[in-house]
Amino acid sequence: MSIFGTRPEIIRLSRIFAKLETNFEHIMVNTNQNFTPELNRIFFKDLKIRKPDYNLKVNTGNYGKEIGEIIEKSEKIILKEKPDVLLILGDTNSGLAAIPASHHGIKIVHLEAGMRAYDFRMPEEKNRVLIDHLSSVLLPYTNYSRENLIRENIHTSKIYVVGNPIIEVINYFTKQIENSSVLEKMKLGTKDYFLITAHRSENVDDPKSLEKIFSGLEKIHLKFKKRIIYPIHPRTLSKIKKKIPKCIECIKPLGFFDFTKLEKNAFCIITDSGTVPEEALFFGVPCVTIRESTERPEYIEAGGNILSGLEPDNLVKSVKLITSSKNKLEWINSLGDNKTSDRVANILSGKIERQKF
Ligand code: UDP
Fold first, then answer.
1. Taxonomically, which superkingdom (predicted)?
2. Which of 31, 65, 127, 223 could bridge across to 91 with cysteines, CB 3.0–4.6 Å?
C-alpha cells in the first residue's frame, strides 16, 4: 500500500507506481492533502497514474484536524486491507499515516529517508524524524542522508541508498516536456525570465516574510530587467493580504511538462521548494533557495544553489553571484540515476517474499 497526497509525492512516485502496478498487488491511497485539481488530479492524467483505490478527502482546514483525519482515515483502510508493507515518500502530513501503521504492526518503507535540515521550525523536519524512526526499511536518496540516519542510531542493515526518483520522471517524459508550448504561449524567450515558486509555511504564513519575498523580487526586476514568472501555490495565494507588485506575473500552478519546460529555459530559478532545486541542477539552471536552512546540502555542494534567506538585498546579491559563474552546472550521477524504481521494487520484493524486515 502506498499513501500520499501532495504534488511532489505524486510526481516523484509516478515511475515507482508503474513498477509496483506490474509486479505487486498495489493499493493506492490518496489523502487529497493537496486538494486543488492543479496540485493533485492533473498529475494522474499527465503522468499516466491510474485512479487511486481510496481518496481519504482529508479536511485540511487546520493542523489538528488535518493530522487527526489522516491518522483516523488511514487507520481504517490499513485495518481493512492489512497490507504487507506501507510505502511512504518524504515528509508531508500524509506520511503520518506511518503512526497508525506502526501501531498495528504494519512494516513501513520510507523513501526519501534521512533528509535533515536540523531546523525544527519546519513542520516537515518533525515529520521526517518521526517517519524515519517508525520505519523498518529506509531508502535515502544519497549517502549524505544515509549518514544522517546512522548518526541517529538507525542500524545500517535497514538502509539502502536508492537515488533520487525525480530524474527518472524527467527522463521518462523528456518528449512531452520538449513538446510543451508554454514558452510560445507566454511569449517567453530562452534565459529571458526568472521562474519563482514559494509556498513553505515558514515563508508564507507570516505576512512579513511574504512581503520580504515580494520586495526582493521587485529589486530583482529592477536590476536584471527580466520578466518574473510566478506560478502561485494556492497556499500562498490564501495568505496574501496586500497587492502583489505589478512586475511579478502570477499565474496558476502549471502541469509538470509546462513547469519543467519553464525551469529548463529560465535565466535563474528562485524557490523555497525541495524538488525545484534538484530539477534546476538537472537542467543546469542557476537556482537561489529563499530559505534559512536546507535538508539538501548536496545541491549547494554541486555548485548549483545558493541559500539566500529572505533579505531582499541578499537575494539580489545571490542571484548576481550564481548567474555570473562561468562554470557549467552539472547533475552528479551519485544524486540519482534512472534506476530508483528498479531498486525500490527489488528491495520490496526481497523483503515481502521472505517477510524479513
Ligand atoms: N511543479 C509543477 N507545477 C508548478 C510548480 C511545481 O508541476 O506550477 C512541480 C515541480 O516540477 C516539482 C514539484 O512540483 O516536481 C515541486 O513541488 P513543491 O514545490 O510543491 O513541493 P516540494 O518539492 O517543496 O516538496
1. Archaea
2. 127
Distance CA 156, CA 149 (A): 8
- 11 CA distance to ligand 1 centroid (A)? 8
Taking CA atoms only, the protein residue closest to ligand 1 atom 9 is 256
Residue 12 Cα to ligand 1 midpoint, Å, equals 10
Sequence ranges of the domains in the chain:
2-163+339-355, 175-335
Which residue from 170, 276, 281 has its CB within 8 A of the most atoms of ligand 1, so it is best to mutate?
276
Give CA–CA dist 286/269, Å, rounded. 6
> Whose grid coordinates read 492524467?
45
**How many angstroms is it from 197 CA to the middle of ligand 1?**
8
CATH number of 2-163+339-355: 3.40.50.2000
**Would you say the CB of residue 260 lies under 6 angstroms from ligand 1?**
yes
| Candidate CATH numbers 3.40.50.1970, 3.40.50.2000, 3.40.50.300, 3.40.50.1170; the one for domain 175-335 | 3.40.50.2000
Q: Is 258 in the pocket of ligand 1 (CB under 6 A)?
A: no
> pLDDT digit of tens for each residue in the chain (357 aa)?
999 999 999 999 999 999 999 999 999 999 999 988 888 889 999 999 999 999 999 999 899 999 999 999 999 999 999 999 999 999 999 999 999 999 999 999 999 999 999 999 899 999 999 999 999 999 999 999 999 999 999 999 999 999 999 999 999 999 999 999 999 999 999 999 999 999 998 899 888 999 999 999 999 999 999 999 999 988 898 888 888 999 999 999 999 999 999 999 999 999 999 999 999 999 999 999 999 999 999 999 999 999 999 999 999 999 999 999 999 999 998 999 999 999 999 999 999 888 888
Mark 209-235 as b/e (b = at least 16 C-beta within 10 Å).
Answer: bbebbbbbbbbbbeebebbbbbbbbeb
Dist. CA 208–CA 136, nearest whole Å:
41
Give the distance (Å) from ligand 1 centre to CA of residue 7: 6
**Gyration radius (Cα) of the chain, Å:** 20
